Amino acid sequence: MTIVEACGGCMVITEACDGRMVIYAVTIYSIREVHMANNIIVGQSGGPTAVINSSLAGVFETAKELGADKVYGMRHGIHGFLEKNIVDMEEKIRTDLDLELLKRTPSAFLGSCRYKLPEIEGNEDVYNKIFDILKEYEITAFFYIGGNDSMDTIKKLTDYSVKINSPIRFMGVPKTIDNDLAVTDHTPGFGSAAKYIASATKELIRDGLVYDFKQVTVIEIMGRNAGWLTGAAALAKCEDCEGADLIYLPELPFHVDDFLARVGKLLETKKNVVVAVSEGIKTPDDKYVFELTDHTEYVDSFGHKQLSGTAKYLADLVSEKYGCKSRAIELSTLQRCAGHLTSRVDITEAYQVGGSAVKAAFDGDTGKMVILKRVSSEPYICTTDLYDVHMIANIEKKVPLEWITEDGTNVSQQLVNYIKPLIQAELTPIMIKGQPRHIVIDMV
Amino acid sequence: MTIVEACGGCMVITEACDGRMVIYAVTIYSIREVHMANNIIVGQSGGPTAVINSSLAGVFETAKELGADKVYGMRHGIHGFLEKNIVDMEEKIRTDLDLELLKRTPSAFLGSCRYKLPEIEGNEDVYNKIFDILKEYEITAFFYIGGNDSMDTIKKLTDYSVKINSPIRFMGVPKTIDNDLAVTDHTPGFGSAAKYIASATKELIRDGLVYDFKQVTVIEIMGRNAGWLTGAAALAKCEDCEGADLIYLPELPFHVDDFLARVGKLLETKKNVVVAVSEGIKTPDDKYVFELTDHTEYVDSFGHKQLSGTAKYLADLVSEKYGCKSRAIELSTLQRCAGHLTSRVDITEAYQVGGSAVKAAFDGDTGKMVILKRVSSEPYICTTDLYDVHMIANIEKKVPLEWITEDGTNVSQQLVNYIKPLIQAELTPIMIKGQPRHIVIDMV
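The joint structure predicted for all components is written out below.
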């Protein structure tokens, strides 16, 4: 957009967005040409996923295609933004190969943060600072790729922009392996994590089958409050795999004694018993299972406890009670950063939600998150849409209780059918010298 | 080989191996044709690997090509063999697709065992039983795919065969992710585990880089006495990855205080500190590090302690001392059964050692293990050879101390150069509905 700004004379000639010239009569003192930049900025926040950079690629490429001047990236989300830790994306992504590598590089390219913006009231200085920086960089649209907490950032920035009557648009791009964002059918990042969990569970079951003695494997899976990821373990059951025997989601209270009794019953007829548990399962008196044992507590800046040790605790209990071998396996961080095993459906949708957010902002939308709308499961068809971020931020979407079996020890076919399309097909990493190649911001 | 056996008359007509007829004069009572079968049997033992079934495919296919009548498989190694838990491989591997799936299926197809044969002296009944079963199935050659303990089985069976003057040949096929077999340059299974460890370490380093705060990640890697696998973490260091900061092998004593001091020093200048440790590191007074904490002890039938908890213990120490976030990540079972990320070099060599063992046995060799001989590292050229199993069984090959840096906190370039060729290229699994497809013996 070019504005011929004339001051001190008698007219202003403005080229509006649609290309028409708008002329206002004013007093002209001098004429100078001012280029009002159409710059955008994008950030990533919260826990990494294997495909969060595909959304970044979608934002970057679409913004350039739609005529953005500069595409800025904020390092370490809004936290880095406040320190003006800002990069020019074109200096970091220079070629089509870079862009392709970006799509296939796990974990946030720009870095992430767990910084939560304070309430607007009483903290206007923080918001003024943000809008000052936005003005300095001539930003017209702000994109934030993240989960629940990140959508809270978009909500607050939108609210403040309304308050100060700023034309800057704020758009949320969904991302979380936890799949716990409201309204959207699912979240980019979940499909690849689910694919990793299903495949790893399958491989662990195969590994456990080799010995001719009784053995119990307890697999601990991420998802502190929502059991979507743990439910993905159910996909290991297929033509060539008997699947996990018990699956415990955090949506229902976990009864240690009942668990032990069921494992004992299974051991009567099976050699290789495999149990998948969410890291967030709690006893009926609302205690995390991992809190039943010794543990070191670490609480992050969102107040989230770091969970770990659930599987170990349960596996030890099994060994003590039944005298058999047990294994505790935490899929841990690998389930969110395994770029070597991603879902092509997921990586494609991650790109699409990034691109759709840019398109919507350029069409004038603000205060919204891009959502995925499933048109059909078989054949799988999914489109994007927009939704008010106020209806999404800070809400956790859990697995519906009717998608968990009545006894609370497995998931229903509905959940399997829901997840299945999301893990389909692969986008293999670009392998260099035997290892997946990544693009790294500090090494560009 | 067909023998026309004539009893009760005056001659025996024998067709020798080379096709010539040999006639002996004897008293003939009756003439009947006896088909002396050339059957072989193969078993798998010890811990699974991602490529152990490629060796099984090599044995099976080569034996059939060289004219074996039946190829039998023993379920759960020598333990299952003693219970005549024996299958006809042709009933389980029926098509070329089955064979291809077998090569790409991790974890022992036939099942495994950790049963160690007793000493011959005083236990002749066990050996007589084994040879009775071999006779019953008309076995001419016996192949055992495994590591140190499995080569002990081949050694003892060979010794007994010499003692009773049995013509049955016994051949060892090397397999172990631990890479601790003597004489052979390396062992099939190691390359794929090393590739998984290097790639996972690289992904974990990337994951840890996203936050703008200090964090220490301790990765626990298999290999109780030999540090080959832990050393593979060094390969994460490449053009696009800074690599692990500290690598501790079990070949040298581990000093907890020195470790903490070094981590503290690193935290002064780095945000993301990554440490790789072997599960088997011990303090100078010969205590496993995991024994410094509470742990549940499980000892397998070879008397091996199940190790786990080293990384957790060290990560907790770091958090306590420096007040920063720490993560303990056990690569655990996945490093040995990740069929979704194998080295093509490894899977090819696994096949070759299986085939070479059969060829050698058919040429009359016995009491030997196939070894890999590295002709050159650059370009990588490797051939197979044979070696007396007595010189291999029960010997553990450790990482040479000169391949560890003097301060004991990393490995030298020599070790990296040694491992690098073994992780090259991929053989992706056959993906069905978004997951790796396996062939499973009980489902055929």
